[in-house]
C-alpha cells in the first residue's frame, strides 16, 4: 500500500529571468515529507531554500515540476484556489512577519479564521498566544511589539487553523535564545501532539536539532540529508558544504 505524503515535490525547478541572464534557484528538487514529521531545510545563502518554501506554499509558480499536498497535485491551481489552499491547509511563517499593522496581536492571530469564514475561536487564539508567551500582549498593535514578539504572533497565526502543513522561513531569526527555544518547542509539539507536518528553513544548527531530519540544499539541488540531527553534527556538516558541492559535480 502506498503511503500518502503530507507534502511532496517532484523535479521542482524555478528559474528567474531569461536567456544569458537567467538565474536558476531550484534545479530539479525531489522531496517528500511524511505526516507528523519535522524537517529542517538548510544551505548557504542563495541555495534555494526560501524559493522552495514559496513554491511549496503556492506563493510562487514553479518553472517546472509538481507540488502535491496530501497526494493532490496543486501545481496548476489558479490563484483563488491557491489562496484557499494556504488559508485552510497550509500555515506559513514569513521571515518578515507580515502582520496587519492596524490589528491587535489577538486579531492578527485570528485573521486566518475570519478569512476562511470560520468561527472566531477566542479560547484557541488566547491559548496560542499564551503558548508563545504573549498572553499579556493580546491587545497590543504590532508597532508596540518587539521584532521577536511580532514573530511569535506570526507563528501563532500560522497554527490557528490547525493546518496539515506548516512552512516556516527562519522562524527564530529575530528571537533571543530563550524565546527561540520556546517557539521551537511549540513547533515540535505541533508535530508530536497534533500530527502536523513542519518544514522549517533555518541557518541555526541548534534550531535544526529540534527536527527529525535535516535536508541540505546547495545550488538549488538536494545535496544531502541527516536523520536525528544534533546541533554539533549539523554545524559540522554546514562547515563542510564544499564537500556536498563536490558531490553534486
UniProtKB/TrEMBL annotation:
Q: Which InterPro entries match?
A: AAA+_ATPase (IPR003593), ABC_transporter-like_ATP-bd (IPR003439), ABC_transporter-like_CS (IPR017871), ABC_transpr_LolD-like (IPR015854), MacB-like_ATP-bd (IPR017911), P-loop_NTPase (IPR027417)
Annotated Gene Ontology MF terms?
ATP binding
Q: Which Gene3D superfamilies match?
A: P-loop containing nucleotide triphosphate hydrolases (3.40.50.300)
Q: Which organism is it from?
A: Nocardioides conyzicola
Q: What is this protein called?
A: ABC transporter ATP-binding protein
User: Which superkingdom heads the taxonomic lineage of this protein's source?
Assistant: Bacteria
Q: Which PROSITE patterns match?
A: ABC_TRANSPORTER_1, ABC_TRANSPORTER_2
What positions does the domain ABC transporter occupy?
7-244
Q: Does the keyword Oxidoreductase apply?
A: no
Which controlled-vocabulary keywords does the entry list? Answer: ATP-binding, Nucleotide-binding, Transport
